[in-house]
Amino acid sequence: MDVLQLLVSGLANGCVYGLIAMGFVLIYKATEGVNFAQGDFMMLGAFICVGLTNPQFMGLPFWVSVPVTIAAMGMFGYALDLVVIRRMFGQSQIALVILTIALGFVLRFIAGAIWGHEPISLASPIAGRDVRFGGLVLGLDEVFVIFVTILLTVVLWLYFNRTKLGVAMQASSQNQLAAYYMGIPVKRVHSLIWALSGMTAAVAGILFASKGSIDPSVGLLGIKAFAAAVIGGFGSLPGALLGGIIIGVIEPFAGRYMPSGYAQIMPYLLLFLILVFRPHGILAQVHAKKV
User: Fold this and answer.
1) Cα-based distances in Å from 286 to 33, 41, 174
2) What integer pLDDT is reported at residue 135 of this predicted model?
3) What is the dihedral of CA 263, 150, 100, 58, to 10 degrees?
4) Which of 76, 86, 23 lies closest to 48, judged by CA?
5) What's the mean pLDDT in 114-119?
6) Which backbone phi and psi does 164 adopt, to 5 degrees?
């Protein structure tokens, strides 16, 4: 039973990593850029939901706060691209990387200034409740995290592969000039993908806050999520989820059965091995770019 408990706990944590990793993949699939503030998007979404829900703040019902938070993060992502990211058009990818790293510091400072640096728990109706399967006791929050993550992964995969706008987003990343000549509104597509990335981060933040307390430093989980995206295959949405689950499952087992400290290093050791032996990730999606 201990093994099953560790497995479910690892799956739940891994799903959160996977959701953040999907934000990396969404941006990359549409722009071939990397948003290193994705973990901080997750943190901001979590704090917005806390601010809307908890009695000491606004005290709205949880099921009202959730869609408001997701919509707010979508608008934040759209506005960020509209006002800031578009000004980077034509610059090197390293400029976007530096910009988003700086943005992460700014978001953590703002969250700390508004909500403080002490851990805060989200007043969620699924927190602290158990589901029993025989002798196995699972947290309802963990079951909910796994279910929502799988559902969202399927929806996003279908969106990118079965809808005209999703295909247009991928086309704009392959060749922006050709996409523009084909009538695709490239700039608007980029803004929409940043909005979608923000909404995905909001879901991850709400699920993470439902499992435990949060503080501004949880945005640094984006580092593990980036490792998950690389392990799974940068550019693959199922790969992002797979990479997150692998890291999430490895951590509790390493913490239980290996010497102290190994749980923290194992994700990056795995990342090192993947980069050496399979540089494109487990579910690699390598496409020849047409010029």
Assistant:
1) 16, 28, 12
2) 67
3) -100
4) 76
5) 90
6) -65, -40
pLDDT at 54 over 70: yes
d(CA 123, CA 46): 11
Amino acid code (one letter) for 290: K
Q: Tokens 């009202």 — which residue?
A: 64
Please list, residue by residue across 223-256, b when 16 or more beta carbons sit within 10 angstroms of its beta carbon and e when fewer do: ebbbbbbbbbbbbbbbbbbbbbbbbbbbbbbbbe
Average pLDDT in the chain: 85
- Label residue 289 by pLDDT band (50, 70, 90): very low
The answer to whether the CB of 39 falls within 8 A of the CB of 208 is no
Nearest to 211 by CA among 53, 22, 46: 46
The structural domains of the chain, with segments of one domain joined by +, span: 2-218
CA 73 from chain center: how many Å?
A: 13
* DSSP assigned state of 288: P
Q: Please state, in angstroms and rounded to a whole number, the distance separating the CA atoms of residues 122 and 67.
A: 15
User: Cα(193)–Cα(74) distance, rounded to whole angstroms?
Assistant: 9
Q: What is the pLDDT of residue 175?
A: 61
Q: What are 114's two structure tokens?
A: 């508004």
Q: Using CA atoms in the order 9, 12, 14, 15, what is the torsion angle rounded to 10 degrees?
A: 170
Contacts of 151 (CB under 8 A, 6+ apart): none
State how far the Cα of 17 lies from the Cα of 250, in Å rounded to an integer: 12
The amino acid that residue 143 corresponds to is V
Residue that has been written with the tokens 């392959």 in this structure: 174
- Measure the CA angle with vertex 243, ends 104 and 276; round to 5°: 95
